[in-house]
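Box 3.1 — From sequence to structure: Squalene synthase HpnD
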Amino acid sequence: MTPQQYVQQKAVASGSSFYYAFLFLPAPRRAAITAFYAFCREVDDVVDEVTDPGVARTKLAWWQAEVTKAFAGQPTHPVMQALMPHTADYGIEQRHLQAVIEGCHMDLEQTRYLDFAGLKGYCHLVAGIVGEVAARIFGQTDPRTTEYAHRLGLAFQLTNIIRDVGEDAMLGRIYLPVSELQQFDVKAHEILKRQYSDRFTALMRFQAERAHRLYDEAFALLPDADRRAQKPGLMMASIYRTLLREVEHENFQVLHQRIRLTPLRKFWLAWKVQALGRM
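Predicted structure (token representation):
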């Protein structure tokens, strides 16, 4: 299997909403974003799939070293071999990849966040930086687009957190800020035991309203000059925001299930943005 085949397989197997936005890109940009996305999946899978924290730390340290070697001209992993030919063309820097790994490290060291400011710092590493790199690959021309990408990445990550409250609780993680649990009188043990309540629903509605505000703020930040180039990001936004609305429609029943959109619906939402410019 070539490095290019490896990253393609990684992207397809994930079933992620991101993949549907990649389909409409020109081949060179599609190859770059597929390789970058595969990198993000590799390091994220270390945290999600390795049960021993010590082993996970060792694997992330290996990735840190691999990134350093790759930017010195010696990539050994197929993901880095597929990604490195695109770094110069799209302004992908070592600091971007190391930041994503740092965010994954935080998952090993921290299972609670005291307030939204702390959670926002984590989200910047695992989602804001990813948005920044993606915007460059898509064809960013205006420096202001970076702030749009950071804001949109935060909205995506908060949507993931809302959707995955139950799954994260099974791993002992609660990303909802402690201060906001206290504000709505929701106890951590209630979430860990998957106990629904009106208080939990109110807390989740508060989270969803903030995510919707962030989507609106991100769209307002996108410069007109880059609107066409950033269509893939807008496709992902359409898919993620539809998912958020689906979670709201299900009254935030996320503790015992993972609410999903079908692949056909994701493709339709992406196509609608591409062909009709509508979200």
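Summary of the box: The chain has two domains: 1-109, 142-278.
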